[in-house]
Amino acid sequence: MPREPGPDESAGAGLRPAGFLLALPSLAVFVGVGFIPLALIATWSFWSFDPDTYWIKPAWSFASYAALLDNGRATVFLRTAGLAALTATASTLLAVPAAAVVGLLSGPRRAALLLALFTIPFFTSGLVRAFAWRLVLGRQGVINNALMSLGIVETPVEWLLFSDFAVLMGMVAAYLPFAIVPIVLAFARIEHSVIRASQDLGAGFWTVLATIVLPLVLPGIVAGFLFVFVAAVGTSMEVQLLGGAGASSISIMIDDVLRVVNFPLAFAIATVVVTVLTVLIIIANRALRLSRLFESLGI
Amino acid sequence: MSSDAIVTGRTSGGRLLFTTITALSLAIMYAPVLYLLLASLNPDEQLGLVPPSRYSLKWYFALLDDGRLAGALKESALVGLATAALAAPIGLSAALAYRAMTRLRGVFLLVILSAMFVPGTIEGLGLSTALRVVGLAPSWVTIAIGHLLWTLPFAAMVSLIGLSAVRPSTIAAARDLGAGPIRAFVDITLPLMRTNLISSFVFAFLLSLNEQARAYYLAGRQNTLPLYMFGAMNSGASPTIYAFSGAIIVISVAVVALVFAALVGQQSRRPRQAPGETSY
Lengths: 299, 280
Description:
heterodimer; A: 299 residues; mainly alpha; two-stranded antiparallel sheet; 2 strands; globular; B: 280 residues; cell membrane (chain B); MetI-like_sf (chain B); transmembrane (chain B); MetI-like (chain B)
């Protein structure tokens, strides 16, 4: 039940310029720290490497964009996007039922507790949470020890750690909250009376879920998928700590390119990634009015 | 308890299935870290669990003698405090601006939240390039600048949620009684927002404390905590790194849990605008 807050009329018309003044500090941070640096590297991605200074010189060129997919970089782009899509799919499949438990099947106290449990890890060290999977998935980890003592395998299963599987587990565990929160927000927007009415008319749980609930929370599901995808595309620590030998990701690739001081190419990769992610978010926002999700926060 | 839930009664197995998946999700998020915590209490050199009778804080005490760790901790604390001290008031200011806006508030919100969607590596690369142009040498200041952008969306959200519970009528009453906008803010809004301001400070501090991708590009000679940890994790794990990971996790979880409890307590004490309305 979104309450329509509307503009804060009570503050009086005198707040109009004050509203602008209040917005200034955050806008200054956005423009100065966020936008200008990204615009700068986007511009410089069209400059050329200068072997004299190991920096760049203003000679306009598309060379970095032509080299974007060379040297196995196309594979890194595809693998990063593929693994991120897989992470987002797995996270969404877990998040929809979990959000339903929070939003539909629990009273307010348990819902608050569950939501806290799902969001607390986000504020803790991602590095430690990824590292912990090494102890679980390693040759002498929990899973291999259990499998061997049960006699299911005789030698440790090698593909558990330092593999795409390990990266996937680490990323799902890390970014699951990104999927759950928007879906819970979407659940909060459902009119309870609609569900009560359909139940009174004899609809069972699964019918209510499929015909009423899922269509209403679809924007939240898409937002959740997208948030996990964006986070997984940008990360590098799960790949670095859990991935196999030679495993790469876009972020690691940018770092590798910087090591050989090819600044224009690193800028080009960064520009392409930011552009693609921005377009994705804008399309999803246009199609599904994602910003409306925040209305259930009452803001 | 489920009598308050929206869907009650028979669920044809749905409740069981969904509860199982929820438990599985929580297990994926918590079990590895819990295992790490228990393993960090093992006094032996090799990894693994020992019976509780042999639990020891040996490796935690060993941390105290690590000079490089102390340096990284100091640097991270400095960055985190500077970041939080800026992010909390700027976040509140952004939330107040959003409330005062009549037009473009959706766009403003997206602009403020947009920093959440840019990969840390790219933000770090862009900012370090820009700071190089400006001539600002890498130090704790440059990291704090990067972390301000990263934490601001969260600080603004916490303040927005808090402001949503400040009734416009309360402010209007103060104004009718002759208070100016600043007096009304100081006497009414600020006290009501105290818990949220503390929360957004704490969240910004923790997000900064645990951030690695941006710090990697922005740090000077002194490593921050995550940069130091990342190095230690990749250079043959010694038992102290488990103790260190354990300490970081326990402190972070305890602090966030306290803040969540304070926020929930505050929300439930506040009068609601409409019965049954949930905020968060």
